[in-house]
Design goal:
By secondary structure, the chain is an alpha+beta fold. The protein contains 14 helices and 11 strands.
Amino acid sequence: MKPRLELWLAIPTTVVITLLLLFSVMAEVWLEQKQYEESLREQAYILSEEMQAAWDFMSVNQDRINTDGDGTYTFKGLHCSIVGTSIGALFTHRTDYVIRYTASQPRNPRHAPDEFESEAIGFFLSNPKAKEYYAPDALRSDDDYFRYAVPLTMDSGCVSCHGGPKGEIDVTGFPKEGMEIGDLVGIASISIPTDQYKRDLAIRIGQRAFLSAGVLTACLLTIVLVSRRFVIKPLRKVEGAVQAVASGDLETAIDPDAIGARGEIRTLSKQFNAMTSDLAALHRDLEGLVEVRTEQLAEANDSLAEQARKLEEMNRRLTENDLYKSHFFVMMSHELRTPITAIRAFTAMLADSEDLDRETISSAIQAIRTNSQSLSRLVDNLLESARMEAGAVKLEKDVVDVGDVMYELSRTLDPLARDKGIAFKAEAGDTPLIMADQGKLLHILENLGSNAIKYTSPGGNVSVRSYMSEDSRYVCFDVEDDGMGISEEDQAIVFDKFVQARNSVSRPVSGSGLGLTLAKEYAELHGGRILLESTLGKGSLFTVRIPFEEPELGFE
């Protein structure tokens, strides 16, 4: 057991005790500041009341002081303002307190307000009912004084000097302000020194910090000594016993009395002894069973592995057979329908119309011959598609004229479109000769075009056009229709095998869902891909992108 356990016990305890002591000191300081500030406010309030009493006394007895014994009024130069400022000056001179009387526009420039007094005057003007104003948190700032102010309001005794008419010279020689009863004449400002309190507070904080440090040290020493005696030392003995068991000595035992174990550690020691005893007995029994079970498990594993191999092989064969049959019959029901339908359409046209010209008849016969050849190719392609699952299908690239592809596509799909009343157009844009498998490329476009015709209502339009991509890296074929469109949900699965939008293989008459899959596989076999953009109810756009491979033309 390394000494770090002592640290894990001591450090959190130290942090908690330290935080608690700091919180206690801060709370005590805050409370003392609040209490002393309230005490200062009460002192300032009482002093202001005493000064206000002297002011009121002079105001009430002003006429008596200035009236002679014969009843003649003679101004003696002793009025409430002189008395108030004089008493304040004497009090300031004899104590550390500072008492001043001031106003926003004092008659004597020496009584001009400082910053605090200006704030107090503004406060009383904004709050006529306020009775006092003082600077909050004065004891926690750098100020040397607690500042306090009370308002001096206009009363009947002040009318002779500050009343109306405004501008008239009063008995003191100053123009009257024209104030009315209740107006703010000025304020009494009282400043009480706080230096001594701050010094006393600093001393108390130092004493409390020293005491807290002593308490913290005592706690830490107690924790270290107690944990080392009753926890760490016994645990080191237990650790040694555990290491002995880990090294293979299952006969190891712990004497709780010898290691001084108490409480939970003593219980742990007894449980450890019981565990090692059980382990020793179990170990002896298991050694005899291990060899027998090992041989049996080896035989069972060999048998299971052989059975698993056989089952996997049988499952693979069954899956391949099932996929092949499903693939073959579904594809037959879908892919053979397009050329058969074309042959029927042209045959019906020849049978039902007796006045056809030779050119039309020749064109129809040629279309039947072309679709018959296409039907033959489709049968071959069906077998080739079945081989595609085994990876045996390869491209037969040759020089391809896209115009020829569009011509063959038009001959195949135009009768289907006319039969349904759909306008069909196949255009070969400015596309050069390319290297591709013409049969598979035609198969891709036939599948996409027949699907477009199938899902477009009569009167609609289906078009196929070819062009080069902007970077000339791909030959692109757009198959576009204005039919029913494909929802976003179905677009994610429309290229999956045997899947149709809101349909399934259970409806082979309407398509097995294999056409788009084969088109996608053939496009990917060319190293390309098919992109789909569709809006439900507005139509679809399938874009086939085949990497452009320029043919090497030349003559030997």
